[in-house]
Each structure stands twice: as C-alpha cells, then as structure tokens.
Amino acid sequence: MTAYLHVMVDSVENAAATTDLEQPYLALGLKPEEYLSIRGILGRRPTEAELAMYSVMWSEHCSYKSSKVHLAYFGSTTTPKMRSKMLAGIGENAGVVDIGDGWAVTFKVESHNHPSYVEPYQGAATGVGGIVRDILAMGARPVAVLDQLRFGPVDAADSLRIVPGVVAGVGGYGNSLGLPNIGGEVVFDSSYAGNPLVNAGCIGVLRAADMYTAHASGTGNKVVLYGSRTGLDGIGGVSVLASDTFSGDGSAGAGSNSRRKLPSVQVGDPFAEKVLIECTLEVFAAGLVVGIQDLGGAGLSCATSELAAAGDGGMRIDLDAVPLRADRMSAAEILSSESQERMCAVVTPDKVAAFLAVCRKWEVEADVIGEVTNTGRLVVTHHGEVVVDVPPRTVAHDGPVYRRPIERPATQDALQANSSDSLVRPAPAELGELILRMVASPNLCSRAWVTDQYDRYVRGNTVLAQPADAGIVRVDDSGGFHLGLAMSTDCNARYTMLDPYAGAQLALAEAYRNVATTGAVPVAVTDCLNFGSPEDPAVMWQLSEAIHGIADGCAVLGIPVTGGNVSLYNQTGACAILPTPVVGVLGVIDDVRRRTIPGIGHDDGETLILLGETRDELDGSEWANLVHGHLGGLPPRVDLAAEALLGEILLAGSRDGMISAAHDLSEGGLAQAVVEMCLIGETGARVVLPPDADPFVALFSESAARVLVAVPRTEELRFGEMCAMRRQPWVRIGVVDSGNPEGKFLEIQDVARLSLTDLRHAWEGTLPGIFGVATFG
Amino acid sequence: MITFPGTLDDVDAARAVRFAGATAVALWHADEDIKGVDAVVVPGGFSYGDYLRAGAIAAQAPVMRAVIDGARSGLPILGICNGFQILCEAGLLPGALVRNAGLKFICRDQWLRVENVTSAWTSRFEPGAEILVPLKNAEGRYVADVDVLDRLEGEGRVLVRYVASAVPGAAANPNGALRDIAGICSADGRVVGLMPHPEHAIDPLTGPTDDGLGLFLSVVDFLSGVTVR
Amino acid sequence: MARVGVDVVIKDEILDPQGKAILAALARTGHPGVSSVRQGKHFDLEVDDSVSDSDLQEIAGSLLANPVIETWAVTRLPARPADE
Asked: Closest chain C residue to A273 measured between Cα atoms?
C-alpha cells in the first residue's frame, strides 16, 4: 500500500546520477540531434519534467522551427514609418496598434485545426477561448471575435459531423463570453476534408498607456496561477502532430499506462473564462500586475519559461502549490497540461493580498506558485525535490531552427498552363440560370445559417457584422466619442494554389478592400498561415512565397504585420490542404456613424457605379470551380497601388456622404456583389452592362481592386469628378429600383430579370437545406 | 442592473437605461442590498454558465432575495432573456424557458407584437404595435401548463408575442414557444419577463431599430407618475 | 420488451464545467459537505428481445455518448411492475 502511494520523482539529482538512462525522446517528437542538444545545454540528461518541457516547447507548434527563418522577412520589410503606430509586434502574445485618442488595439488570428477535427465542438470552443486569453494577456478587454472556417465538401459525410459541431462550438463559447461575432469566413473545398481549418480571431481594446507584456521582472515578485484547476487535459496535445502519445511519465506511478491513451481533447468552460476575463481586467485596472501570460498550448511549460526568459531571467516554481484536478499528477504532466481558462501573473509581494481578494470576489481560484529570481535559471520543485533546473531562454526561444529544403513543385508549370480558356462558357441566354446556381452554391450562398448561431449584438457596440464586408465595433460611446474598429479576414486558397505569392497578396488586397469598403482606414495586418507538411519542399516553397507576398504587399500598402500564427502539417495522408494564408486587416473609423453599409435601398434611383477595371480573369474562379470542377491557370492580376487608390476613393466617398452603400467584388464577381446588395437591402436594381463588354466576363470575372457603390443622384457628378481627377477607373452600370407593384427584381438588361424572392430562396436555402434549419417553423 | 458571474448584457442594459434618461446603478449578485433603486433590470447572459438549468443558480443568489421582496411591494422589474429565466426560476413569473425547438442558439432580428400596453414597462407603445428587436438565446421556448397559459391570456398578461416579418419565408415563431409567447408580466404588470432584447434596439446604429427604447421610457414614465393607460 | 437505462457522464479526467458550477453553488447555498458533482445524462430505452447487450453497447458508444470525452453504463432494468 505504501508503495502504491509513493510517487517517484525524477529529480535533477537523480538525472545527474543516471545520465546514461535511455529516454523516450523519439516518442515525444524530438529528433536525436535535438535531444543531444538538450543534453549539451544541461550537461546531463534531462529529467522527465525537463524532457517534457523541451519537447513541447521545441515542437513545431510552439517553436516555429520550420517557419522562423521565413517569418524574419516580415521584420526586415517593416519600415520605421510602418512601425510608428506599433506598440508591440511579432513575438508578443498579440500585436498592439495605437489608434489615437489614447486608445490602442490588439488583434490576432490563431488556428485550432487538428483539435477541431478530433472533437469539433470542443476543438472550436477552446480555439476561441485560447485566442481570447491571448488578447486579454496584453491588458486589453476583448471586444469582438471573428472565425475563419474551412471544411471539406458540404455533401461529404464527415461534414455533417464537423460543420455543425464547429459552428456550435464557436457560438457556444463566444456567446457565453459575451463577445459579439462580427465576421469571418466559411469555405468548402475537398482539400480540407480530412483536415478542416478552424481559425479564430479576436480584437481587444485598451488604453495605450495600460499595455501589459509577458515578462517576469523584479526579484522576489510572486508568480500567481489563477483560473481553473490543472488536470490531465490535452497532455501532449501541442505535440500531437509530431507524436501520437505522451509517454514521458514512465515512472509517474500507478495509472500512467491508461493516461498514455488519453485523447488530446480539452473541454472548454466559457463561464470560467468569462469570470477570468472580468477578474483579470479588474486586477489590471487596480494596478496589481507586473507581467502576465495566458496558459495555452504547452501550459505551464510555456508560461513559466516565457515569463522568466523575458524578465530578470530567473524563476522558482513549486508544483505542489498548483491546484490539481486529478490525483498523482507527475511533474511532467502538470507542466504540460493544457487545461483551459488559466492565467499566470507576476505580482509584487505587497499586492498579492489585494490580487487574491479580487480573485475571491469573482470566485476564481488563485495560488502563489513561485517567485522571480535573479539566478538566470528556471527551477521547478515537486514533492520537495528539484525536477527542473534550466536556463529559461533555452526552453522558450533557443529551440532548433531549420532551413528546410524548398522547391517549386515540378507540377506548378502544368497547373499554371492549364488555364480556364478551354472551359465551355455559357451562352447569353443561360446567364440568368447561372446567376441563380452561383448564388446558391456552397461557397457563395448566405452564411446566415452559421452567423445566426452567433451573438452579434452583445455589448451594444456592433455597428457592422456579417454579411457586411468587414465587421465594425465602436470603441467607446462615452463623452461623444464615435471611434470604431473594422476588421476583415480573407483568403482565396485556390488563388494561392495557382500562385502562392500573388494569392497571398490577393488575400491581403481583399481584406484591405473589405475594410476600406466600410469607410474605415486600414492600419495593420495579422495572418494565420495554414499549410501542409514542412517536410515537403513544395509546401515550404508555398509558405515562403506566401510570406514574401504578404510582406512585400504590406510594404506597398504601408501597413505593418503586427503578428501572426503558423499552422503546419495540415494534410490528410500525403495530400496537403490548399495553401491557406488567412490575412486579417484591421481598420480604424473615426466616426462609426458614417460607416458604409452593403445593402442598397437608401433612396430610389440611386446610381450604381462599378469602381475598378474588369478583365477576362476566370482562372481559379468560383465559376470554374462550381461549373467545371477546374483549378488551373493564373490568379487575377494583383495591383496594390490600385487597391490603395480605391481605398482612398471609398474613404472620401464615405466622409463626404457621396456613397450610400458599397460592396466589394470577389468570388463570384459582379453578379454575386449586385445580388447581395439587393438582398441585404431588400431592394431591386436595374443593371446595364457596358456595351463593349462580354456579359459573361462582366458578370463573373474575379478581377481584383473592384467595388460596387451606390451613389445618391445629387452626388453623382461630384463623385464622378473625384474619380476622374484621381484617375480611378469607374463606370456607371445601373440604378437602384425599389420595385413596382409586381414585386422587386434584379434586372440585368438583355441578360436576365430575376425576382428577389427567387434570388433569396436560392441564396438562403442552401446551408439550412444541408445542415438542417436553425430556426423552428 | 444586476450583474451575476456570467452576465453579459449588463453594459447594454445600463446604456438603455441612460438613453431613457435614468441613472443605471450596478448591483452585485452577492449583495443583498439593492441600494434603494426605483426599478430593477435583470440582464441577459449565462449566469453561472447556466450549466444546471438556465437561471437556476442565479435565482438563489443573495441579491434575488431582495428583488423578490421588492416585487412584493411593487418594485418594477424587467428580466431580459437570462433575466426572464431567472425570474421564472425565482417564482416571480409562472412557466419556464426550455431549449429552442431547433436545438440551436438563434440570433436574429425578430418582429414582435405588443399585446398589453398597460404594464409598467409597455405604456409607451400603441396597442398592437409591431416592433423589431434582436432575439438571441438557446433556451428561449416559453412553456407552461395549459391552465397557466389560459390564465395568462385571460388576465392580459401575455405582454409580447412573436409575429412574422415582412421577408417572405421567415417563420413567426423562432423557438416553438407556446402560443408564440415572447414575454409575460405579473398580475400587477410590474414584473416583466421578455425573451427578446429591447436593450439591443435603442439606436439604429447598433441595432435593427430603436423600438426597444420604449420599454425603458415606459418605466421612467411610470416612476415619474405619468399616467398609465 | 425490456427496459434499459443508459447513464452517460463525462470521463473522470475530463473537466466537467457543469458539475463544477453546481458544486460551487452548493457551497454558497449552505451545503459545504459535498466535495464533487459530475453532471451526466440519463436515457431510458424500451427495447425488444432482439436487441443484444452488444447492440446496446454499440448504441450507447456510438450515439448516446461521445466516446472521446464521455463514459457510459448500460443497465438492464427490471420490468415495470404490472398494473394493479
């Protein structure tokens, strides 16, 4: 019986004495040379707890070991001018941007792909939870979320499991936190069938003077762990891509064998997170915190090593002080646990009591688990023995860096040569039918089935949400302020497949354009780079090209990348996903009351003006995808100077009241944009295509740098003059038509006359038809 | 304005109170003191995570003892969404709110008809007025015994009902609530429970309309002695 | 016909937020002696004699429970007492 209760501890002392012991580093995902490097750092074999820490922190997910050399390009292309508004950038939990009036914004998008495939609801829910804690850890109040979801074909059997689960998980968690969901993406493509992409974004707002960073300084300051208890959740979850099971606890006592089979699933508790948010904001406001770090992937291993590495360089942690949810957890397990809804704060000794009192008020468990030291070592004790004694930087930052082989795949030329020119195009008489088919297609139909499961109203500051081009939230409505934030995220992975450099720039261009379309000024960029295996040179080529595309594009547009996330190994067997660099653009609008809405109907007879040039660009288009199942050729031409000019026109139009509605043209082209403007505004329109244009190309080409705007008749002259003066290409293509006694119609002269009722049925019926009606009746 | 752990719409409700020209006073779930307020709003959210039954745990909170006492002496009380659930769990209103018939969280703009304009919270509306306010919940289906429903109808205590919108194809009743009930009131018309969110419809900039402001203006009228119809 | 009960609970090692919230409420409302609450689901099934124990395990493990995070127990219940 005593033997059963006895817990063996693999102490540092023990490790030094048994330095030849064989260790299961391979099963933990470490390569032999990485293991040797750890031994070199320590001058002995690592203890089990140290091995667990290094393996999880040196995993691809935490160390970015394959992408680091490429990500450096973001820094080298950011000019001092671009940097001038950045209060924190790459390397922090999330980038922070100064938006004026004393306010700052922090925003980020992160992936939670694999866990969402294993357990869609909890995977998506904890993805939202993780990104919200990242934002909170910067000292900001989270104010909105956006989610970027990519699934296999809608009619795949597994989609019926994954799609409703993920959507319910995003909603279930975000709704319970009281965060409005203001936008995002839903894309279906067969490449995501065994590997859905669940990216979650969050925006936070803070007073610029109140920013916090993850650092532990001030020798003698206390380290407080607060929030939920630490259990066996997601042990080894972060390393799951590299290793299936966690087996570093061979001597962890009874029960360790069954624990090895634990799934890497974490269960989210949004209520615990909600009180954690309020509690954390209260300790910030009371000035009780020196530094703070959220516990996400890699749990305490990550939080303690990163805090210590960024501060005075030393920290002492006592694992016996960590409140546990499971019996007899080993040091390795406690350090690797990914239990959700936990934070780690550094607090001066005189403020610990006040800190704990705030936690008690919110019924949040909090314990002092250690203190900051000046030893330059991270020392962890368990059951009275030292189980970790390492230089924290070697865990947090000095992981391996790989220059993986890069090679443009041999098939790329053939892919680009296989243009859509060979595809049969519809006859003019078939265009009306094609419009109905396109708007009903999975990638173009209404997202209301998804977004109606998300709360977009909570906090009362949502000015725009889906289906607008970008979401807008008001920052502060006290004292006559009307400052607002806009955000849009985009990526057309089909374009990125055809040309990763241009495709990534098109993602940036579209997100930039979406923000500008609402009347906001784009100010900063984040990205979430979802790619296949870095061990495939072709994937590394895609990644490198995409990073260069985004960075070079940002330099042209003059807005910085403030942070990002990389998710690799997204593939099913040997088949990688389409390269999916999701780009998020943050915008600022000085007065939310002038935001531009996407629906027409402000006034009858308003003029519809198409801004930008339309070329015959149908390679990689939604038409080629839906009608012909074709992907080949070259993506639409990138013209970032044109995007910047278009942004200025839209801003001026919004400021001077020259635009009553605007909607960007992207997948599905002009046809999709005009249909959506009609349906959102519940108003018809008469469109006259330019006489020299091929109607099919005019309606379905996906040329970039285009926006459709509605201009009041009294402003048309002024607006046209402004475009002419600034050399903005524009063409008048129709008028708003509020309808006649027979009903409302979208009439495209000489092409089709479609009733809004039919269009609405087509647009709104698809997702409820597949995934079940969200509403009763 | 009561805040429980997990309350979400308290900032919105406080804003609505301000828009109506009144002062919002923050009340904390653990305090029995309701600070002498003239009316109470129990806002929406997921109090204590709503893990047992929606509103069940919050109904037991110290502050609710004071609220229940207040209700006995005629204090106007408005429970919105989770607040409605809490008032039902606390026994201040009959019936219960259960999971939506569609089994999903629904967030949409909902048309409602105001059936009773004599309550403390609805006097600003015209009889039969149709208003558009956001609805957002997972457990919003109002249920009660047939005789309770009959009594509510007979006493004019069905305050607000779901009605169809002008957009073709949209169903009137979003969640399967019995007799399309969206809100009810107490016999004295002072305690009101409402599933939709009037506090999200006080400004067309951030909501579909400003129709919801009428409830807050009504109670201010009521408290300042303006004649109630 | 036979009556079968299926009880589904979250696995011991997986966090049960529901149970945690109820436990905290019990402590607040003057029941400090309770040290753990796990919330689960109970299903009553009426099955005919062709449904075997392994069928029931299959039903419970594939539909009623999510084996990734939940465990289940199938209990054959005594027949209802005859109407008297």
From this structure: C17
